[in-house]
Amino acid sequence: MSMNRTVVTNGYIITLDDSLGDIQGGAVLIEDNRIVAVTRNAEEFAGLDAQVIDAQGGIILPGMVDSHRHTWMSLLRSISADESLPEFLVNTFYGLGALVRAEDMGAATMVGALEAIDSGVTTIMDCCDCVNSPDHATAAVESLRASGIRGVYAYGMQAYDFQPPAFTAHAQRLKDAERLRKEAFSSEDSRLRMGMLLSDFGTLPFSETASEILLSGDLGLLVASHTGAASTSILLKGLRELNDHSLLRPGHLHIHCNGLTHPEWELLAATGAKVSISPETEMQMGMGYPPFRAALEHGILPSFSTDIVCVGSGDLFSQMRLGLQFQRCMDNHCVHQRGHMPSKIDLSVRDALKWATQGGAEALGLASEIGSLTPGKKADLIIVSQSRAFVPSSYPAGSVVLQTTAADVDTVILDGVIRKRHGQLVGYDLVTVRTRANQALERIQQAAARLKRKTPEEVAQWFAMGERMAGGNFAGAYAQGIPAGK
Questions:
Q1: Separation of CA 218 from chain center
Q2: What are the residue boundaries of the structural domains of the chain, listed by start?
């Protein structure tokens, strides 16, 4: 039986495996799609019948994991750069989402997946909350598979004013999720699994939210939700109501969580929750402070997400840098409040690296497969080039987190396949990808030109109505009384 071998050598290896640590000048041996060995002496692999990748002094580390990325919005770069969360929801999310056709979805998903790979992200949770028709879901999955990226396709249950409507009832969306699970995920796929992105809490009757969670359990899907993403608002809350009905379950990935109270964090910890944090969008859009410290204090390993390129960067280096330095600032502020200067930095760049790799792997239920350069795990590996620097890094982990951009990613190996080399994506028809994407964008822009943007006053009224609706929907959880024992 033939075996494809690759040796990655001549770099500084950050394994993120506590038993292996960092290795200067070692090598990683890959066979097919698995890491089989990591050595401190590259000479051990000399003479092997293997392809050799010379890192040329770069930094070798695990592929990063983006635990919350909306690839369907990848065509709308920076469109929401000056929008608050309510403005974004009214004018971009629901406004433009209603215009997205299945062919647009396929083009956008491919762009989003390739942007992730190009920036050293080898695994994503694709939060596809714009399933305007069954064809939209199928097109998204086809593009994810064609890209070769690893991850979870999270079928979104949000409803848009798409015309003509393919779904006229919530039950039809549930039925289509079952259809996709059977048609596209019936066999074991080594790279792509299915999940469900729940309807935003409070926007539907409680019984319909419950039906989404129950179906996810029946189909064996990873469950994700935008949770507590609007500080000071009742929208996207409802954790107590869900827990009272035994609907908060281990592995549920809660995204954002900025507005959660201490009792709500205790509910997440008690129910085995995972947490995804998007520093860039959360800080801009008025969601609240990125809750790294709250997650850590409740024993939850955070993970990073890029969320949407409608706002900021599509790479995790930016999220690591912004998120870590934000939390350091907040921690230092607590010391200043006591009248002292901070004498030490608590959170390290290695913490941020861990959140971007192992944290994401745990969030997606893949900790045994990815997240570190551990023999036996999948061969997801990247090389960060140091060629633009005039001198080598004195602390490679620090350079990765605080000084790296997507442009510095020299090589990406995903499931044992080289997807980027010498700074260029390989194995894709990029001309066709760009042409298809630009045609889709042009069509969406033409359709969007006919839409009337809501004024700030109209946005505020819309959001206030949503909060009133949420209050009624959460109350509906107790239409038949409080469950026994609660």
A1: 24
A2: 5-62+368-425, 64-363
**Residue-wise pLDDT tens for the chain (486 aa)?**
357 999 999 999 999 999 999 999 999 999 999 999 999 999 999 889 999 999 999 999 999 999 999 999 999 999 999 999 999 999 999 999 999 999 999 999 999 999 999 999 999 999 999 999 999 999 999 999 999 999 999 999 999 999 999 999 999 999 999 999 999 997 777 799 999 999 999 999 999 999 999 999 999 999 999 999 998 999 999 999 999 999 999 999 999 999 999 999 999 999 999 999 999 999 999 999 999 999 999 999 999 999 999 999 999 999 999 999 999 999 999 999 999 999 999 999 999 999 999 999 999 999 999 999 999 999 999 999 999 999 999 999 999 999 999 999 999 999 999 999 999 999 999 999 999 999 999 999 999 999 999 999 999 999 999 999 999 999 999 987 767 555
Q: Do 5-62+368-425 and 64-363 share a fold?
A: no
What fold is seen in the domain 64-363? TIM Barrel (3.20.20)
User: Which residue, among 116, 141, 117, 111, has the nearest Cα to 128 in the 3D structure?
Assistant: 141
Helices (H), 342-455: 349-354, 360-363, 396-403, 430-448
| Distance, CA of 332 to CA of 324 (rounded, Å) | 12
Residue 290: asked if its preceding bond is cis (omega within 30°), the reply is no
Q: Is the peptide bond before 483 cis (omega within 30 degrees of 0)?
A: no
Q: Is 143 exposed, middle or buried (0-12, 13-18, 19+ CB in 10 A)?
A: buried
CATH of span 5-62+368-425:
2.30.40.10
270, two tokens: 């008690």
pTM of the model: 0.96
